[in-house]
């Protein structure tokens, strides 16, 4: 990290099961490390069935130098509804919460307030539903929660499950804008921007990208997406 920018990434791990149908958390961690990110927002970091044990083992992530941010999930889970965040040294955690989201499928969002070299940040991690109506309801629930909190530069990152234009998503979070991240799905030949990063006006994404080098092309059905954030000029 440096005093000028902060790299955030988002990655749907698909429970560390690759396109070769092998569960390889070591391979997933190698992709995460290659992102050179300061904070990584993860989806499907836990196995699906209760009590949702971690698909990415705690000790492996910690041995790789990551701090797993605490979201209070029981049963050995890495996060909340499969969502979690990994932070590098230099990121100071101030607070966390989680939020149940509406919809037919069980969904939840996570939030961390952190101190970084570019100042305080509030980061929301999401994995939205498969039906657009519920995606919009889920974003509305997050927005209502954010309006009850003190102002802070805010980032939304995760798997938004939106195959088409981001216009409907952008309208649901009208105080934030989506960074121009590349397509990330499916990993071997990406055509859809399912994985996205959105920021408030206090932040700007100076650079964005996906990581497609081996073994990312096979470690998950998604590629990880990253953005280098800076404070917006006043």
Can you put this structure into words, describing what you see?
The protein is an alpha+beta fold and 234 residues long. The chain has a single domain, classed as Endonuclease/exonuclease/phosphatase (Deoxyribonuclease I, Chain A), CATH 3.60.10. It is 18% helix and 33% strand. The protein has a six-stranded mixed sheet. A six-stranded mixed sheet has the order 5-6-7-8-10-9, covered by helices on one side. Strand 7, helix 3 and strand 8 form a beta-alpha-beta unit. The longest helix has 16 residues.
Which tags fit this structure?
234 residues, Deoxyribonuclease I, Chain A, 12 strands, alpha+beta, globular, single chain, 18% helix, 6-stranded mixed β-sheet
Précis, in short:
This protein is α+β, with helices and mostly antiparallel strands and 234 residues long. It is built from 5 helices and 12 strands.
């Amino acid at each position: 990290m440096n005093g000028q920018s902060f790299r955030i990434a988002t990655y749907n791990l698909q429970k560390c099961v690759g396109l070769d149908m092998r569960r390889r958390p070591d391979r997933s961690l190698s992709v995460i490390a290659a992102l050179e990110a300061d904070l990584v927002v993860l989806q499907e970091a836990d196995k699906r069935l209760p009590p949702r044990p971690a698909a990415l083992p705690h000790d492996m992530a910690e041995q790789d130098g990551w701090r797993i941010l605490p979201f209070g999930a029981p049963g050995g889970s890495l996060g909340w509804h499969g969502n979690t965040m990994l932070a590098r040294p230099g990121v100071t955690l101030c607070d966390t919460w989680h939020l149940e989201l509406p919809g037919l499928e069980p969904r939840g969002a996570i939030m961390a307030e952190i101190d970084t070299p570019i100042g305080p940040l509030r980061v929301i991690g999401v994995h939205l539903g498969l039906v657009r109506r519920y995606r919009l309801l889920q974003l509305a629930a997050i927005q209502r929660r954010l309006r009850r909190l003190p102002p802070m530069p805010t980032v939304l990152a995760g798997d938004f499950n939106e195959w088409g234009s981001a216009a409907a998503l952008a309208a649901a979070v009208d105080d934030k804008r989506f960074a121009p991240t590349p397509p990330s799905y499916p990993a071997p030949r990406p055509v859809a921007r399912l994985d996205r990063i959105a920021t408030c006006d206090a932040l700007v994404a100076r650079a964005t990208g996906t990581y497609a080098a081996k073994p990312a092309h096979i470690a998950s059905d998604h590629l990880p997406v990253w953005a280098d954030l800076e404070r917006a000029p006043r």
